[in-house]
Amino acid sequence: MNLKFMVNDYVLIWNLLFQASISESLHSLKQKIWINYKDQYNNTFKDNLKILKDPKNFIPDDDTIYNIIMENKGYEKIKKDTEKFRVKLLEKWDENKKTAVKELKDILRFDIKLYNVLVVCEKLDIVDSEKVKGSKVNTIVWGKRFDSSNPYNSIINLVFEIVKKELKDYREEYKDIVDAIVELAIINEFATRLTKITHYLSGDNTLKYLKKQIYPYWLMYLGVDKSDMLKYMSRDNIAYDLSKYTNEVQLRKLNLYEFIDFCIRNQKNIVKIDELEII
Fold first, then answer.
1. Taking the CB of the first residue and of the last residue of the chain, which one, N or C, has fewer CB atoms within 10 A?
2. At what angle do helices 38-45 and 24-36 cross, to 10 degrees?
């Protein structure tokens, strides 16, 4: 995985215009623009997908609204703050890139190409990972607040959103299984490897039951020998009866897509409703 962090004026301005206002002054400016340039404002809303298709080369049909924002003194400060935010993300990624890429490759077993991370103001507290048809590059819009007390979270959550995007349309009819396995891969296993502390209690509460049922097979996928499984169960505070499971050694040869397919094919045996427990 290779991430390129950048700030793009059109992406930033579009999100400032159409996401929740981050300040009273911006809210007032947006209201003023709406009153005086209603048609242009409405037309600018339609630009989002065009921008994301090719941010570097996007040229608006009508740049009226963009120019008004760019000429506003408040925008200069917002952009400077966004650049500082970009640098924080870049520094944290560079600091952990070697380990992160190695561990991701070991967990996913498929490659993720270059992603342009289009950084917007962190006060927006947003992420846009929608797939855009015809896009020339993989992009994700990132404006989630940077957790200075636990900066690993920014990297973990960013990688999580990218992997979710990669699998967004895969086996859509089994979305819960796909979501549970992506969480096991990134929110739980990747985070545990990156921080050296178990994260297997983290994630979406609605997926906890399902993840517990998949967990024994997930350890097999990771290549954990049966003799070592008690150690992992103790580490992650997840208990199950080892005697009830056959060691599916072939799982360690699969990639994440293939493991998802295995779980879907065998879901009647994996999801034991009468044995559901909270992780």
1. N
2. 110
Confidence grade of residue 274 (pLDDT, cut at 50, 70, 90)? very low
The structure tokens listed for 91 are: 């520094």
Would you list the DSSP string of 48-107?
HHHHHHSGGG---S--HHHHHHHTSHHHHHHHHHHHHHHHHHHHHHHHHHHHHHHHHHHH
Query: What pLDDT does 271 receive?
Result: 80
- Residue 272: the pLDDT is 67
In DSSP terms, 143 is beta-bridged to 126
55 and 128 Cβ atoms separated by less than 8 Å: no
* pLDDT for residue 160: 98
If residue 264 lies in a helix (H) or strand (E), which one and from where to where?
A: helix 256-265
Q: What is the value of pTM for the model shown?
A: 0.93
Distance between CA atoms of residues 165 and 163, nearest Å:
5
Orientation angle between helical segments 175-183 and 256-265, nearest 10 degrees:
130
Give CA–CA dist 178/165, Å, rounded: 12
Which residue spans within 39-167 are E strands per DSSP?
115-119, 126-128, 138-143
Token representation of residue 261: 């397919």
Give the pair of three-digit tokens for residue 11: 């992406």
What number of H helices and E strands is found in the chain?
13, 4
Measure the CA–CA gap between 207 and 182, rounded to whole angstroms.
11
Asked if residue 108 lies in contact with residue 185, where contact means CB atoms within 8 angstroms, the answer is yes
Residues 45-94 have pLDDT tens digits of 999 999 999 999 999 999 999 999 999 999 999 999 999 999 999 999 99
Look at the chain and count its residues. 279
CA distance between the termini of the chain = 30
The DSSP bridge pattern shows strands 126-128 and 138-143 to be: antiparallel
Residues 100, 233: Cα–Cα separation, whole Å: 24
Instruction: Answer whether 252's CB lies under 8 Å from 246's CB.
Output: no
